Amino acid sequence: MGEMSSRLLSDTAVPVVLSLAQLSHAGGRQVNQDSWGSAQQDDLTCIIVSDGVGGEYGGEIASNVVVHSIMEVFVEEASFGPRALQSYVDHAVAQLYRRQAQIPRLKDMSATVATLLIDQKNRCALWAHMGDTRIYQFRRGQLLNYTKDHSLIQQFVDAGHCSPDQLRRHPRRSILCAAAGVEGSGPAEVMQNAIQIQDGDAFLICTDGFWEWISEAEMVRAATQAGSAQDWLTIMHTVVEQNGRASSVPLDNCTAFTIYVGNP
């Protein structure tokens, strides 16, 4: 009887609740070329952040195409798994190539992408990314996982030619090895095994205009002070602005999403 009741309980598990907060602004630039979006179907949630590259609104269009293409196909075919996630990103890349072919002046536009897929009923998550838009996962005040940039400087760090702090400071830190819309780009990196999530887990998805100005230690410190996804984002953004103002470097577009899982 004990086995049957535990099985029934798991089969009718209450989906975990998510709370989200988001911000996006142009920073010191004329135009904000970042885009973001989230969609929910049944007990699945998909959250996307994209950082556009390309002059005269090209980057803005590229990031918009990426985000809306992923949301569109997710809403139509909502499914959880690495193959589904790969298909969402592949669809976005194909749509971007199509738009480049239709409008010759946009042929050089491209965009990063970071997509987080959460199965709320089964309490698990997957993510995919291209470029240097990052996904972080925190648990109990500790950094648990984060994506590794597809960038020239990350390759230098991996090869031992640069120290990790150069990811935030090197003059060539924005040169990417993978991005949607770049011919010959490396492929999207898609997590192949879902990770279990717990109440109290927290995710941050952000463009380089955000993470460049806040260290992982500062992210953790902000998480321990915050009582909600919005609190956490607000505290981190204050740090980003303070660190950015203290620098002589012009600030980039800045976009971030925070997600709290269940009851913190």
From TrEMBL:
First-level EC class: hydrolase
GO molecular function, one term: protein serine/threonine phosphatase activity
UniProtKB keywords: Hydrolase
Source organism of this protein record: Collimonas arenae
Domain of life, per lineage: Bacteria
Keyword Hydrolase: yes
Transmembrane feature ranges: none
Keyword Hydrolase attached: yes
Protein name: Serine/threonine phosphatase PPP
EC code: 3.1.3.16
Domain PPM-type phosphatase: 17-261
Pfam families: PP2C_2
